[in-house]
Amino acid sequence: MPKYVAFLRAINVGGHTVKMDTLRQLFQSIGFSKVETFIASGNVIFDSKSTNAKALEKKIEDCLQKKLGYSVATFIRSTSDLAKIAQHRPFGESDLNAKGNSLYIGFMASQPNNESKKKLLSFVTEVDDFHVDSLEVYWLCRTKMSESKFSGALLEKTVGMQATWRNSNTVRKLASKYR
After folding, report:
1. Which of 18, 68, 102, 158 has its CA 20 to 30 A from that of 95?
2. pLDDT per residue over 58-88, tens digit each?
3. Domain tally for the chain?
4. Residue 66 sits in the same domain as residue 89
5. Are residues 161 and 77 part of one domain?
6. Is pTM beyond 0.85 here?
7. Which residues pair with 13 in a beta bridge?
């Protein structure tokens, strides 16, 4: 049975607090098995007979909207997709390993068009650099995220769709655990 990771937007941020046991129960209630959560930021791992990620996203979003009372954008990746995402290295090792630098991965529901990619790349500075690969945006931040002029909200405005961010360390740990 296929194993997936759901990256949920707006979980345990902005006043939307959800306990992980509640989240696991909600996923089990809609028919998923072997449901686990990974840190309290909206990462849910589960098995499903379905191989249609878009249908799974819709099913989860509908359930969470009904049960939590607000919209939770959901971005599904298979564990094999996640391994590829974790291994992708769009920036040099010296940048990735430099003190104070962090790599974030933004998950989106669809690929941004060429115009959106160009807009995003117009935000490249000495502090922030970006790379788009399929459904993910890689953001190299050479300072604290809070000190950058770029933000998740600006990404969404720039590419015209919702996204959710995870630190690359989280993504690598998930990929390693569910390989």
Report:
1. 158
2. 999 999 999 999 999 999 999 999 999 999 9
3. 2
4. no
5. no
6. yes
7. 16
